[in-house]
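Worked Example 4.2. Consider the chain below.
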Amino acid sequence: MKNKIIHKIIAALLLSTITVYSQTKAYPAPGKLVDIGGYKIHLLTAGEKKQGPTVVFFHGAGDIALHWNLVLPRIGKFARAVAVDHAGEGWSDHGHGLALNQQVYDTYQALKKGGYKAPYILVGHSLGGITANLFASKYNEEVVGVVMVDATHPDVVLKIFNKDRKKMERKRMRLTADQPIKEVDTSHITEPKETKSFQGKRNFGDKLDKFSEEDKGRFNWIYNERPFTYVKGQSNTYEAEIMQDMYLNKEKYTLGSIPLIVISGGNKRIPEGDENWSSAQLVAHSKKLQKDLLKLSTNSSQIIAQKSGHNVHIDQPKLVAKAIKKLIKVIKK
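Applying the procedure from the previous section yields the following structure tokens:
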């Protein structure tokens, strides 16, 4: 009799555990959802009532707008700030795909329809630096400043799977380009995209230590609890093709005299290379590319974030905010 009671207690505990797990908290969008033509783009904002330039933040590959949330509130104290979730990422709906030029169009439409008017200061981290560069080139007259936060350079070397050799190897991303860049789709979406999904898992390590408990919950929900959805045949970002065009046609992507600040991580850990690229070569190449970004503008400067790796906006958010504040002062003068 005693054993039966114990078994019932254990069963009840297990059932309650399963019930709690199945009722995992779902997190609504922490910012605004702006409809830009049948699909909504998520804008995480701060400093709504501030005057002056609108500071627009572009996240890197695999990240979301929330990764800017250590910098965003600081900027909100003296300027309007908007971090963008690209279509199909974070809390944004699936739109017309993830092509980088499409992301630029989507962002511009979301800013305009959301009431965030020019002039714009663009801040891009990692691949977001490429997106910021594309935006500044497309809407040049509405951009008054750019900040590159350990931004990707069109000549970047990445670890890429070689289909012929069936192995991962270090290679310039632009050299893998093999198709025309997809044209931007401006049509209205009348029906929701048919999506497929899988359950992702991401180990953040200590990357989230500085974020609030609420934001930690949001990150965990996005990456580990909510199934990741995608539209079949719509996941190509055309990174290689766009980087190749930027490398071969530099004049199309220069910023003129628009003020540019390049913030580079000074304490990065470069993984081991392969038979073509040693770790030392990768480090030297990375430093060279960060310097080369300064050529985008005739009015540029570089800041080395000595205590940061690649994620300067997380390692040293005060430094990034200070650089943006300094840029705004220069622009206002």
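The chain has nine helices and twelve strands. The CA atoms of residues 261 and 301 lie 5 Å apart. Compare this with Example 4.1 before moving on.
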